[in-house]
Fold:
Amino acid sequence: MTIDSWVNETLYPDWGQRFRVKRELARVQSDFQDIMIFESYSHGRVMLLDGVTQITEMDEFVYQEMLTHVPLLAHGDARRVLIIGAGDGGVLKRVLQHRNVEKAVMVEIDGEVIRLVKEFLPEIAGDAWNDPRAEVIVGDGIDYVRKAAAGSFDVVIVDSTDPVGVGEVLFTDEFYANVARLLSDRGLVVNQCGVPIMQADELRDTSLRRGKVFADVWAYVAAVPTYVGGYMTLGWSAKDPAARHATVEQIRERAEKAGILGQTRYWTPEIQAGAFHLPPYIAEHLPARG
Structure:
């Protein structure tokens, strides 16, 4: 269908952005949410869930690279990775770029998201769906985390919607306690915490919850243009406080060994090290300075 209209994002009641739509590609009401994929004039193809921008072809690499490469390279030897959400497959693709990863399990609750992105946004995941190291489960991430064996993963990446609706259960005390249990001795978890200039409560509340079960709780930042409001914060929780303080030289060496050095468009060793140095307006919402 060819149309000439605008789509207005509905994340905030008093502020937002809009896209001029070239062509609507899909509009589906799944069992969990309203899914819309369209071709824009400015950002390539765009996916909205319940009216909120999730991914655009123009800048998806920023979010995906920082959500994936930072925890894997901070850990330094992550072999088993659990991904909760991330139905577009972009995180899965970047996890599998790491040669040392032996298994990546992705649990996405909404199978319609996976089906639609395979059809309309195939470049986001590329061939990741068919990688023999990947196990893609359409199911409840809460249930999976609850049942997973202790110490069964090295890194957990939580790529969820905001803590309302289908994403709300991924921000609870029980969820993070179970994540801590399934992580190995040096394990760590990262999760999206919103844009703090508008969603400071999200960063503050989830940091307090994570702080109940992890030795090191902090955040790092990435500038994703279509997540309006400046920096996007990514929550950081690690059993080993030293992981956050890996040097540029250590990160570069690990990236070269993993095979991703020079393969990214936003992430670099310097960007990773610098991303943990937060502006005061963000750091003030964390439970401790570090």
Notes: The longest helix spans residues 60-75. Confidence is low (pLDDT under 50) at residues 163-167. Residues 6-56 form a domain with the Spermidine Synthase; Chain: A, domain 2 fold (CATH 2.30.140.10). The chain has ten helices and twelve strands.
